[in-house]
Design a protein that fits this description.
This protein folds into two domains: 177 residues, Flavin prenyltransferase-like (Rossmann fold); 197 residues, Rossmann fold (3-Layer(aba) Sandwich). It is 34% helix and 23% strand. It binds cytidine-5'-triphosphate (CTP).
Length: 413
């Protein structure tokens, strides 16, 4: 399986700053994740950070000598703070201790890391800060004041998360995990083509119950819909994801509503449709459901007779949303998973559903896979997005949607 993050940070040079905290061990994994994603990483450590993890480890992982002092004679001009901050595409401080955040808030420059944050050209080198500290330290008014100050001064906060802490307590202040930090950074560099827009997405299969233990469903994995949710969030959208029964983690920053059946999916989608600008229906909604659901498990009666199942058609969620009154209707994108004559069926389906854009693929060969190939069909014709992993495709599709969907003329409820 190809790593969907491989190369996502190619050409990006990251200054990774470590201040003192137990979470320094996560910074080692974070450095590794950045390198695997194609970034070059220059590690800068404070004296306190060196008490938690050695520069040797960080040098081995980043394949570059670690810088710890502004008096580092290896810098030809002896101006590490200028050189390091000028060549960075971003400075990420992870972990950022309470003390370090206080230094940033006050513009202190006693140690190289704080000095280079102060010396960075703020308009082109973003500063991302991942706090890591005990929950009482995080909640303290002094820390909250300092955090508000650095955010007002232009820093971006990554986290913190809530949960078990190294000290044994439970609460806010945990540093994000290495992969979460990497994903935040990848998201940071994505074009914000959906900034200010609200996107509603359906994903996964639906499950239509026959009795309490059985039902009919399909092989949709939900991966494409989840990838689109992530890509839309990376592009700056506010994203709501209505998911059928799938075991996939919720992309960061995405609001998720879990449902099971088509009727539940429709009931979740309809009230949300009018407050969203764009609706992307990727769910493989079961076309039919049993006419009646047995309250108890249906038992064999010993005669070999099979139960007489009758079916009724499920509501068409996409068509229902696409036919809302204009003022309440988001811009609709459908998916068409076909087994043959993909483009012809997609064209027909687009007209039948009354939607501006339909995304066609070859259903049986893509369900559950990590890659896909898509054909975009709209009133102007077709455009192919060649085979790629689903996350890259999702990013390309999000850019296509952003270019086509009109900016909201409607008032968001
Ligand atoms: N869709 C939906 N509700 C349904 C059926 C489909 O919202 N009850 C949406 C899907 O999410 C997808 C699009 O409609 O975006 C097309 O789904 P597909 O299953 O390919 O088409 P159907 O309308 O079910 O037509 P058919 O099964 O005849 O191909």
């Amino acid at each position: 399986m190809t790593d969907p993050e491989a190369g996502t940070l190619s050409g990006r040079h990251i200054v990774l700053g470590l201040s003192g905290g137990v979470a320094c061990y996560k910074a080692a994994e974070f450095a590794r994740a950045l390198i695997k994603s194609g970034a070059t990483v220059q590690v800068v450590m404070t004296e306190a950070a060196c008490a938690f993890i050695t520069p040797v480890t960080m040098q081995a992982l980043s394949a570059r000598p670690v810088v710890t002092s502004q008096w580092d004679a290896r810098q030809p001009n002896n101006m590490a703070h200028i050189e390091l901050s000028r060549e960075a595409d971003a400075i990420v401080v992870a972990p950022a201790s309470a003390d370090f955040i206080a230094q940033l808030a006050q513009g202190q420059a006693g140690e190289l890391l704080a000095l280079l944050c102060l010396a960075r050209p703020a308009e082109r080198v973003p500063l991302l800060v991942a706090p890591a500290m005990n929950r009482e330290m995080w909640a303290h008014p002094a820390t909250q004041r300092n955090v508000a100050r650095i955010v007002a001064d232009g820093a971006r906060l990554l986290g913190p998360a809530s949960g078990d802490q190294a000290c044994g307590e439970i609460g806010d202040g945990r540093m994000l995990e290495a992969e979460e930090l990497r994903d935040e950074l990848i998201a940071h560099f994505q074009p914000k083509c959906l900034a200010g827009r609200r996107v509603l997405i359906t994903a996964g299969p639906t499950f239509e119950a026959i009795d309490p233990v059985r039902g009919i469903t399909n092989l949709s994995s939900g991966k494409m819909g989840f990838a689109i949710a992530r890509a839309a969030a990376e592009a700056g959208a506010v994203v709501t994801l209505v998911a059928g029964p799938v075991h996939l983690p919720t992309p960061r920053g995405v609001a998720r509503i879990d449902v099971r059946s088509a009727e539940q999916m429709l009931a979740a989608v309809l009230p949300l449709a009018r407050s969203h600008d764009i609706f992307v229906a990727t769910a493989a909604v079961a076309d039919w459901r049993p006419a009646a659901t047995s309250e108890h498990k249906i038992k064999k009666d010993g005669t070999g007779a099979t139960p007489a199942l009758a079916f009724v058609e499920n509501p068409d969620i996409l068509a229902t949303v696409a036919h809302l009154p204009v003022a309440e209707r988001p811009w609709c994108v459908g998916f068409a998973a076909e087994s043959h004559d993909v483009v012809r069926h997609a064209r027909d389906k687009r007209l039948r559903k009354g939607i501006p854009l339909i995304v066609a693929n070859h259903g049986p060969s893509t369900f559950g896979r990590d890659d896909n190939a898509l054909v975009l069909v709209d009133a102007d014709g077709e455009r192919e997005l060649p085979r790629s992993d689903k996350l890259r495709l999702a990013r390309a599709l999000v850019a296509e949607i952003a270019a086509r969907a009109p900016r909201a003329a409607r008032t968001v409820a």
